[in-house]
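DM between two lab members

TW: hey, do you still have the Lactate dehydrogenase entry open?
JB: yeah, one sec
JB: this one, 139 aa:
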Amino acid sequence: MKVVVYNVRSFEKEFWALANAKQHDLTLISNGLNAETQNYARGKDAIVISGGDILDDKMLLNLKELGINKIMTRSKETSHIDLVKAGALSIQIANAPFEDQSPKGLAEQTVRNLNLWGMEKCVGKACCCLNDCAKNNFQ
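TW: and the structure you got?
JB:
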């Protein structure tokens, strides 16, 4: 998958490289997702955000117009994402629900979710979609 990862700190780059192991085409960006940086998502299959990135109605519409159908947040929380609007736009949302919230653990969780999405499978516990995909497609 082609993916842009926002809010990557310099010390995290090695964790991303190791977790990814050249499976996905990752673009790592140090800036957060906002009106000025959203265009980095053009031509990507998915984006990865942090808990500080706000995905309101307008941002989700913009991302959908850029072709984004999958969004992963590197946080347990999803309160920064309008899940109802994402569902209405058929955008799949995943979070990082596992105990290991270290930069290494978050990179590994994210790549796991990208792998599952790449195989057209549900991400299981990480699924934050408002549909029944976890019940129907989790393997």
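TW: got it. The mean pLDDT is 92. Residues 103-118 form the longest helix (16 residues).
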